[in-house]
Amino acid sequence: MIPYFHNSREYKFIEKEYRHLSSKVFKSGIFLQGNFTNLLEDKIAKKLNVKYCITCNSCTDATYFIIKSLNHSAKKMKIMTSNFSFIASGTPILRASKEAILSGCNDEFLINQNISKFRIKDLHSIILVGLFGKLLDEKFINKLKKVHKVPIIEDLAQNFGAKRKNKKFLIGDAGSISFDPTKILSAPGSGGCVITNSQLISKNVRSLRYHGKNGNKFDKIGYNSQMSELTACYLISKLDKLDKWNKRRIKISKYYLDFLKKKEYITTQSEENNIYHKFVIHTKYKSKLEKLFIQKKIQYRHHYPNFLSDHSIFKNSKVIYKNDNNFVNYLISIPNHNFLSDGEVELIANQLKKL
């Protein structure tokens, strides 16, 4: 079986290092708020060229903390984001007692760029999702800032290591990143962080993640959303390997893309600004490809089978620039992780040739 996910194969590669690092944490006796967490935050901030990185328990928490940390009018109750994403891109909006404005997506699965023309009264902020590893264009983000004049939050859960043409990673006011086991920089459990160049947002997020603590006082209601020292040390161990692993995954993805460019009625994301966290295909031949994969024992996934607005918790949300309801029925995600062998990549590519 060719696995869709890479975790078990990755563990074989770094097992000895994990054991060594685990031993250091246990011997220290410090499991929270220790040197590994501080070091990870410093290393991520440096790698992504931002002033501040604040770790927490999940990317979902990170997005919510950003919303709560914005120095913005409480009367502004609406937050706009993509209708096509994982549920965690939208739930922080509801958790913050805001109204979700959900936009359809373009052919590359990113938010419809016509939102730059859409006028919304009492708009609080915009959450832009870099879905499947592709960052949104900087010109588009700057246009949104100019037109809507609200903070831009980047949901970068699937983008770690991606770069725009100008080498920038963060364009918005703040970004949330996931270290879920399925992500590019993956933890053996949950984890996330906020990145920002705003001292105010950084200060507010640090307070929110640990019970509302401010210095030696607890002057607001906060949360317990800490990253463990074990998780931090594992992530540090992967940071130096990540560029090499990313290059391999991008190379595999571009190999697939070369075959698909010649096919009609098939769309996927382009190479620009893309780290290819997932390789997702939109095709009317989805059922045929599934059958081919099953015959060859190749795992695949379906990202995502529903729009956010299909879930009952978003039933009162406004939807703009709607996609066709059948859009999600023609999606298939294929293995493209860096631990695939050349032979496995070729086998997968041979199935794409048959479309």
The value of Rg in angstroms is: 20 Å
Work out the number of β strands. 13
Uncertain runs: none
Number of DSSP helical runs: 9
Kindly estimate the percentage of residues that lie in beta strands according to DSSP: 15-25%
- Shape category: globular
Mean pLDDT: 94
Give a description of the structure.
The mean pLDDT is 94. Strand 2, helix 4 and strand 3 form a beta-alpha-beta unit. By secondary structure, this protein is α/β, with parallel strands linked by helices.
Key attributes of the depicted protein:
globular; alpha/beta; three-stranded antiparallel sheet; 355 residues; 9 helices
In short:
The protein is α/β, with parallel strands linked by helices and 355 residues long.
List the helices and strands and how they pair.
Layout: H1 7-28, H2 35-47, E1 52-56, H3 59-69, E2 78-82, H4 91-95, E3 99-103, E4 123-129, H5 138-148, E5 152-155, E6 174-178, E7 192-196, H6 199-209, E8 213-214, E9 217-218, H7 229-260, E10 266-267, E11 279-283, H8 286-295, E12 318-320, E13 331-334, H9 342-353
Parallel strand pairs: 2-3, 2-4, 3-12, 4-5, 5-6
Antiparallel strand pairs: 1-7, 6-7, 8-9, 10-11, 11-13
